[in-house]
Amino acid sequence: MNQKNTLMLGALLLCSVLSWGQTPQQIQNQETFARLYGYIRYFHPSDEATAINWDRFAVYGAEQVSYAQNQEELLATLKSLFLPIAPTLQLVPEEATITWDAAEITPPDVGKYDVVAWQHRGVGVSSNSVYKSARTNRPIVLPAEDVWSASSKKLSAEPHRGKDFRLRAMVKMNPSDGDSFAQLWFRVDRANNQGLGYFYNMYDRPIGKTDWELVKFEGTIDEDGGNLVMGAIFRGSGDLWIDDFVVEVQEGDEWVKIIEHDFESDQEGKRPEDWSAASRPDLYTVTTSAEEAYSGTQALHYVGEEGGRIVEGRLLFDEVPEVGEYVEKPIGAGLMAVFPIALYGTEEYSYPQGDPAALARLQEEITNKVPSALSARVLPVRLASTIITWNVFQHFYPYFELLDLDWNEALRTSLAACYTDDSVEDFHKTLKKLVAQLKDGHGGVRLMGDANFGYVPDISWRWVEDQLVIRKVCDEDIDLQVGDIVISIAGQDPKQYFETLEPFLSAAHETRMRVMAERAALDGGLASELQLQIKGRSEEVTLTRTEPTGNYYSGCQGWDRPAYEMVEEGIHYINLDLYPMDSIDALMPELKTAKGIICDLRGYPTGRNHMLIQHLLPEQDDDKWMFVPHILYPDYENLVRFEELGWSLKPKSPHLDCPLVFLTNSVAISYAESYMGFIEGYDLATIVGQPTAGTNGNINPFRVPGGFSVFWTGMKVLKHDGSQLHGVGITPDVYVEPTMEGVLAGKDEYLEKALEILRL
């Protein structure tokens, strides 16, 4: 069967279930398949289970179980799906007598065999350096989509400092599968090693189209820019072409080209001299090619090789289950799953070996019936993505104990929604709603190339005294004033409008939810419009979304504060969002004699300036406050232990012993909360503002079929005294609630409170 017919057949079979109505039997079938899928994927140690593409297996399996009309048919279908990859699995009715004999999985000469079992340090759903999953005595194979490479070109920023720029290029992809994508990026490296300036990498709208498309974005080059660096990131495998790459800066009323690259004069088959080589030359090449071009005869061509990357296997931690240990779990529909979590194995196979013919047939079925490009327009893809997402959290999310949540009911509800979703956009909401129930401030779901999100109008607003108030207007053409009160958004009461957004936003507490909803209410597609009604005015105001959401907190939403300022005689203000550690080091002689210091962390630190903590600590820091779970067993049960981590900071001279105030709020999340955790835990300063986001710990994103990326927190983080951080945050010593008077007067009421404290 040729590839074209194979894809057509797969598409027809996948679409065949779209006409079905949702029935209780179908939902039960999907729930049962979902539970068994997670148990076998993450905890059954057979070699056969690693021979399967688990994403495509989920799509195929979701379709197959939909046909089952009763328990008997469902049981037969599950056996046909799972026994080829888990030969030691037992599937039986709940009322059946379960017999487990370790002798049946023990080879005659045990001395020739090693123990093969899953270990999870968190969970290795990507190539993240913190979280890993591996089988003992087996190499780790990273999927191709977890491998990426970057290539770039660079020029001096000095002639262009402070100028607006815009980048545009024609791009085209031929991904080898539905998980591969590319991104263009632009970065300003600030002079004198001051850290990162402007940065954007199309994270919110990656490239995936197989036709030529125009990509463009714009921004402002930092006043202290040292170099401009730009290029492409390619994740996965396949082909990427770039043509007519142009960067312009604004000189007065004109736009002047500083880069114009059509690749026509570059030698075919060679990398352009001013473009760097791929950062992974073993898997990626960058050359000039005549194979494809948007204009002229040549374009820049990235090629990513297919296949994963093998990493030498090793024990992730010392504890390993013994052969003979098994799991007995109800999976729904009156069925039980019984399977070992440790097997014997040689370098060539795990014991006992399964039926290679059955495995080959299953792999062929998946290849023939599941297209390479997967879209959530198709029901089995929606079901599969839901099943995969639910299982990652079911077995590895560290905060269920803090939630009043029926996660099984969440699965049931989400699966049912898959049957009624009419579009990719509908399913995106279903997946976001599932993740939002976890109340993880890192939590969220992004859709590759989503044109419905990614831009905001050039204003900021906030809830003040129970009213939605315009806080800042950064585009003089927008007919709004600071202090305007919004009484209608798109024809709805603002509170009602915000309430419609909140079920799809994941926030650990109400104050963080308010911050997220303020941004989400502005978010939409490029050039899309939002209608507002302003108190005291009869006509509506129409806002146009023009600014990338990625610049939201550093753009119009940001505080109008400099990186550093002597705000009063002897009182220094340091904006930790902007001022890197090397600049703080240069300022240290003045800070040593300061009357007071105000550190502003209403955002995210930059340039490793958390090292300022060393100049505040009275003693060696040995606190452990980050905890990565070591997992051998499913359902987050019987945890082996937590791996305890901290920063182990040492006091550093000079010691700053003047009064300090730290400003913070619920925009401060993750790394910012690590920073603030020291301030609170060691009582290093007076904290002024509002609670931080209550979400810390490295994220552990993963992708699911249909082009969705799911974000979440993969470890547990506590405060330095061992108390709860998640959902609480670092709470201020002095709480500040903005007022209408302050907004109208353009006051920074956080800063004013800090000065009031230091003047005492």
Characterization of this structure:
Helix 2 packs across helix 7, helix 6 packs antiparallel against helix 7 (407-420) and helix 7 packs antiparallel against helix 8 (424-436). The protein has 4 domains: 3-141 and 316-438, no CATH class; 146-304, Jelly Rolls, CATH 2.60.120; 455-551, Pdz3 Domain (Roll), CATH 2.30.42.10; 564-759, 2-enoyl-CoA Hydratase, Chain A, domain 1, CATH 3.90.226.10. The chain contains 14 helices and 38 strands. The strands form 9 sheets. Strands 2, 3, 18, 19, 31, 32 and 37 form a 7-stranded antiparallel β-sheet that branches. With 760 residues, the protein is of the alpha+beta class. The radius of gyration is 28 Å and the shape is globular. Helices cover 23% and strands 28% of the residues. Mean pLDDT is 91; it is low at 1-20.
Spell out the key features of this protein.
Jelly Rolls; 760 residues; 6-stranded antiparallel sheet; 7-stranded antiparallel sheet; alpha+beta; 4 domains; disordered N terminus; 38 strands; 14 helices; Pdz3 Domain
